Amino acid sequence: MYLKHLELRNYRNYAKVSTDFSPQINVLIGSNAQGKTNLLESVYVLAITRSHRSNNDRDLVRFGADFARIDGRVSRKLGNTDLRLVISSQGKRAKVNNLDAPKLSAYMGKLNVILFAPEDLNLVKGSPALRRRFIDMEFGQMSPAYLANLTMYKKALKQRNAYLKQLKFHQTKNLTFLDVLTDQVAQYGGAVIAARAKLLQDMGKFAAVIHSDITRGGEVLQLRYVSQVHDDAFGDADAATARLQDLFAKSRQRELDQGTSLVGPHRDDVQFIVNDRDVATFGSQGQQRTTALAVKLAEIDLMKQETGEYPVLLLDDVLSELDDNRQTHLLRAIQDKVQTFLTTTSLDGIAREIIQEPAIFHVDDGTLTRMDADAVLHDRGSASAQT
């Protein structure tokens, strides 16, 4: 799949922009704070319905405007799909082929994207919450069933925590209703754990091959799902549910005392093991970056496996954070198969493979101008020759 056309109205610093994109490489070049990341973010929001940079939707609306609108035409194997997302004080409204989407969860998956930004290099050494958010956002695009179970789990967990708080402060004594909520949390939580374990196992296989390639066979990468549920129950949602119910029974008094749920996939984590050592604790910065890169690149193949199509890749100033070896492997992984958008302040320092046949856009204060790629690359080549 690829994004053929994008139109923005009142999005961040863009009053109005409308443009077509290449199905291959699209380079957004310009000085800092001109809107390169904003445009990349708009593609992400069109796909995911939320920003990776802000939890406040109002931040996405141009100053002084009442709404922001993102329109996109997505080319897929079975034809084109027109998407629209409108953001206002009334919330978000989505359309697919001019028909209202009843739920945002039903809208997701029409455009699949993978975002790789400098902060993603902290995936390995960051907090467990960061890694949980990462797998939930990515797996939610790949599997409507996973997204549905995760949504219901979060809803049931919120109700259970609220009720546990009431019990803690003696506002109610009805433990039967707590049992009902516990069963719901265990049911949806078991489905989430089983799906996470399966997808992480598959992602780990892809990541191990990529990681071995980058390190020239010198290191072995493993992804390990860390959960209160034993790994012998990972592959079966019913077994994971039964294990959660057992854990809830054992932790019941502690949960009543603390007024919150102490068990469930909202407390799980992902561990990255390189040569049998936890790379977050014992790995060098270089090893941590290689691991993060391998995992992000593994997403591409995993998404192709799960959806039948390659996703759109968004690279937000990440090439400048990678050395030549890691750049080369990144470019090799995406060449000729993944539509890519990358932001940069300069083409200098970018591995030459990335600019074979790019579409180049100059971003300046919320305006987008397509440039003559041959002329830009010729000028770059001339300047390199002179130096």
TrEMBL record:
Return the CDD domains for the record.
ABC_RecF
Boundaries of each RecF/RecN/SMC N-terminal domain copy?
Answer: 2-345
Q: A biological process (GO) annotation for this entry?
A: DNA replication
Q: Where does ATP bind?
A: 30-37
**Would the keyword RNA-binding be found if you checked this record's keyword annotation?**
no
Instruction: Spell out the InterPro entries in the cross-references.
Output: DNA-binding_RecF, DNA-binding_RecF_CS, P-loop_NTPase, RecF/RecN/SMC_N, RecF_2
Q: List GO molecular-function terms, semicolon-separated.
A: ATP binding; single-stranded DNA binding
Q: Which UniProt keywords apply?
A: ATP-binding, Cytoplasm, DNA damage, DNA repair, DNA replication, DNA-binding, Nucleotide-binding, SOS response
Gene3D superfamilies assigned: P-loop containing nucleotide triphosphate hydrolases, RecF/RecN/SMC, N-terminal domain
> Where are the annotated coiled coils located?
none
Instruction: Look up the record and report any one GO term of the cellular component aspect.
Output: cytoplasm
Q: Extract the SUPFAM superfamilies matched here.
A: P-loop containing nucleoside triphosphate hydrolases (SSF52540)
What subcellular compartments does it reside in?
Cytoplasm
Show the PANTHER family listed in the entry: DNA REPLICATION AND REPAIR PROTEIN RECF
Q: What does this protein do?
A: The RecF protein is involved in DNA metabolism; it is required for DNA replication and normal SOS inducibility. RecF binds preferentially to single-stranded, linear DNA. It also seems to bind ATP.
Q: According to its UniProt record, which protein family does this protein belong to?
A: Belongs to the RecF family.
Record protein name field: DNA replication and repair protein RecF
The record's gene field reads recF
